[in-house]
Design goal:
about 120 residues; mainly alpha; 434 Repressor (Amino-terminal Domain); Plasmid maintenance system antidote protein VapI; Cro/C1-type_HTH
Amino acid sequence: MANEVNAVAIAKVRVWLEANEKSIQWLADQIAVSKALMGHILNGERQFLPKRMVQVANVIGVTTQELLTPDHTEEKEYTLSLRGKADSRIAKRHLNILLHAIENSRQLEKALAKVER
């Protein structure tokens, strides 16, 4: 079974092959390995060795770093911990303002991430 780094690289290679209408045989020919070996690598049954990653990255026109880096990072949820009580009307109002500001910030982050893609 492929490790996490291999899984990222394998997924990117598979997407590239499909997008460019290339076969596993074509890729194997480009890096001078057998179709069977390339198939095993792309199925996670064989280790995607660094030497092969460099060769594949060169063939598909990306850097090795781009091949190994996930396209997106997992969004982490914010946690807000408050101590004490919000008994007064003003304290509750301030808490609501804070919650709205946090939500607006999250929406802006998502919009910015879309623009950067």
